[in-house]
Amino acid sequence: MNYEYTKFDLGRTITAEQQEFFNANGFIHFKNFIKPETVKDVIEASLTVQQEWLKNKTIKVNGVPVKYGKDLDGSDIVQRFAFINQHHPVFSELSQDPRLNILLNLIGPHARLGTEEKDGMVLNHYVNGAQSKFTQMGWHTDGLRDIFHGQRLNPMLNVGIHLSSLKPENGGLRLLAGTHKQSLYQMLFRKKYFLDNKADHKEIAIIPEAGDLTIHDGRLWHRVAQSSVIGETSRRRVIYLPIIAGKYEPKHEHSPTAFYQRFAELVK
């Protein structure tokens, strides 16, 4: 496993060096995108949304299933929030950060933030305890969604805003650099989607500090590794927001649940 790769600072534009790195590897890591106090505000806002969804027994948001789980003390928690940007002003404001528009250049013309499409802004909350179920995710590509919908594979990037500082033993994002350039056959059959959780000797471990931002191409093979530690030190939170191109397809409260989302325990 490789922990060493170049990390960058996000300025007013994507530099030629950053574009070259992203084109070659299919991912990029920017340091210190949001400040520690913003990280704190975001986590507190997620707890407010969680309290509301637990109270209302919210099952789906715009057709996307909400993933519930158990905290270390056995209490109910939300472990995957979909479209959280539509449920609290802190997340809405974060999704409108003008610096995110700089990232659109990684795809090119006609790219947009998917705040109303796909699953919107998603917050994942992992914790490894005795009753935990949402602790890892097997190998997959995000591009499979378009194929499920019978669509051609449109450009898509996943922007991750990390709310936890991780060490390798905390698990987290693992990816196979360069696989965004693979054939469609390799995209479909290189790994057993979601079922294969095994480490790959070529994988790169993303080890962020709280407040860092990462981007990975939707065609890239990646997984979420389980924490090897148990308890509070295993807790990690990360936000994902898609950058997409192609037909505009916003979701709403009457949107149907996608076929693959019926297997909610597998969905990122």
Task: Please give the structural blueprint.
Blueprint: H1 16-25, E1 27-30, H2 36-56, E2 60-61, E3 64-65, E4 67-70, E5 76-81, H3 89-95, H4 99-103, E6 112-113, E7 122-126, E8 137-140, H5 144-148, E9 156-162, E10 172-175, H6 184-189, E11 204-205, E12 213-217, E13 222-225, E14 236-244
Can you walk me through this structure?
There is one protein chain. With 268 residues, the chain is of the alpha+beta class. The chain has a single domain, classed as q2cbj1_9rhob like domain (Jelly Rolls, Sandwich). The protein is built from six helices and 14 strands. The strands form three sheets. Strands 1, 4, 5, 6, 7, 9, 12 and 14 form an eight-stranded antiparallel β-sheet that branches. A four-stranded antiparallel β-sheet has the order 8-13-10-11, with no helix packed on it. Strand 4 and strand 5 form a beta hairpin. 38% of the residues are buried.
- β-strand percent reads 15-25%
Computed structural class: alpha+beta
Low-confidence stretches: none
Tell me how many strands there are. 14
Query: What is the residue-averaged pLDDT?
Result: 90
The biggest beta sheet reads: 8 strands, antiparallel
Give the helix level as a range of percent.
10-25%
How many domains, in number, for the residues?
A: 1
In N-to-C order, the SSE pattern is HEHEEEEHHEEEHEEHEEEE
CATH architecture: Sandwich
Q: Compute the CA-based radius of gyration.
A: 17 Å
Cα shape? globular
Q: Looking at this structure, what is the CATH superfamily?
A: q2cbj1_9rhob like domain
CATH class: Mainly Beta
Number of helices: 6
CATH topology: Jelly Rolls
How far do the termini sit from each other?
22 Å
